[in-house]
Specification:
BirA Bifunctional Protein, domain 2, Rossmann fold, 13 helices, 8-stranded mixed β-sheet, elongated, alpha+beta
Length: 409
């Protein structure tokens, strides 16, 4: 439905805008950037739990690197190129995989270093056709939750299972209980030998099946350097969105000279797994907005608690409550405009703030707050109310359960 279009919802929530003379480039507003950072920090923490090490790589890189990797031949028309008089042209990166291989190559590696798991929220640019721009769903500048695992062939199944478990858990916590899986096989134009592709396709399919997945085969849809599993999540409107992917690559490490010393002391080329859970951060936010009809889970909402003094006599104590909420790690907003309480509550509903904390004369006298959400209304003392709201955010619950708050009579 039109009202669930993420562009309309984002305008209502004041999340971002796009300038006419910079199509496909996102200007994130405070509320939108707050949502973005919450999502980023959430995934960063999940990746850290699984021993991924975060790195950061340059955005502007020499043409020679893209020629060696094969991206220049494959993606040149979609790359932003910066010509130089010296002839050493540069280009904005459309993806981070060659950079992560350069980090791997910066030191001598042995089999004991594998698997090496690198992650990056990497800023990428692709010169997409102007007619394909669509809010957050298709942009020219975006950030990927890029991750690459350098490993040995016998470690592939374990690493794929590790990724599938993480992806399933993340999607579930964000409200997506179902997803479809496809295995994209060798395209007509590809790098690497048929033997490499035979092995890569067979190993990725076996790894997928070992996790209980039954991917649909998609001939000809693989990346130019390897087959990939593609994960399409389903939203509440029944639509399918391709987001997560994991690709098995026997080609790129060799092209960029990656090697390690095996257990016999011989040089060997590692296997590379490319993967992402969100894909584009902005695109995933657009999907998330439409899936939740703009009413984001409590732990993700840019503003979690609307603090409402009934009158100017409660303004001081409302400001104090806001400070306590901030100290507890929550994101409150003080609605202290001169309008009536009813109009201010409507305003907070328009911004889809999940919880309203009302402070009137009674609350000021007995040290309580009245909390309102879609699930109902509760009265709690400050300590209990703030602690339970913080617990709701920490546990990544969608709403504040009524039985978490102790009524004060």
């Amino acid at each position: 439905m039109e009202q669930d279009d993420h562009r309309i919802l984002a305008r209502r929530l004041d999340l971002y805008h796009i300038e006419e003379d910079a199509p496909g480039m996102i200007y994130w507003h405070p509320a939108g950037w707050q949502l973005y950072r919450q999502l980023e920090e959430y995934l960063r923490g999940r990746m850290r739990e699984l021993d991924y090490e975060e790195v950061n790589s340059p955005q502007l890189l020499p043409r020679g690197l893209w020629e060696r990797s094969g991206h220049w031949e494959k993606f040149r028309e979609n790359m932003f190129v910066v010509p130089r008089d010296s002839g050493r042209d540069m280009a904005l990166k459309p993806m981070s995989c060659p950079c992560h291989l350069q980090i791997f190559n910066s030191s001598l590696r042995s089999w004991r270093d594998l698997p090496m798991r690198l992650s990056e929220f990497g800023a990428c640019h692709r010169d997409e056709p102007s007619g394909s721009m669509h809010g957050l769903l298709r942009t020219r500048g975006f950030v990927q939750d890029d991750a690459h695992v350098l490993c040995m062939s016998q470690q592939i199944e374990t690493e794929v299972a590790r990724f599938v478990g993480l992806l399933s858990s993340v999607y579930s916590e964000l409200g997506f209980e179902e997803f479809d899986v496809a295995l994209s096989l060798r395209p007509e134009k590809r790098a690497g030998s048929d033997e490499d592709w035979d092995q890569a396709e067979a190993q990725l399919l076996a790894a997928a099946r070992s996790t209980g997945l039954s991917p649909v085969l998609q001939p000809g849809e693989g990346a130019f350097y390897g087959p990939k599993l593609e994960f399409a999540l389903r939203d509440r409107q029944g639509r399918s969105w391709q987001c997560g992917t994991i690709q098995l690559d026997f080609v790129l490490p060799a092209r960029l000279g990656a090697s390690y010393a095996d257990s016999n002391g011989n040089r060997a080329v590692p296997v590379m797994l490319h993967h992402a859970i969100f894909g584009s951060m902005g695109r995933f936010i657009g999907i998330l907005l439409e899936h939740h009809h703009g009413r984001l889970p409590f732990w993700l909402a840019p503003v979690q608690v609307a603090v409402m003094p009934v009158s100017e006599h409660q303004l001081g104590i409302a400001q104090e409550l806001k400070r306590h909420l901030v100290a507890a790690g929550l994101r409150p907003k003080l609605f202290d405009e001169s309008e009536t309480l009813a109009r201010r509550i409507v305003s907070s509903h328009d911004l889809m703030v999940p919880v309203v904390a009302v402070l009137g004369r009674r609350e000021a006298q007995d040290g309580s707050i009245t909390l309102r959400s879609q699930q109902g209304q509760w009265v709690a003392d400050w300590h209990t109310g703030i602690a339970k709201l913080a617990e709701t955010a920490t546990r990544r619950l969608t709403e504040v359960p009524s039985d978490m708050l102790v009524a004060v009579h």
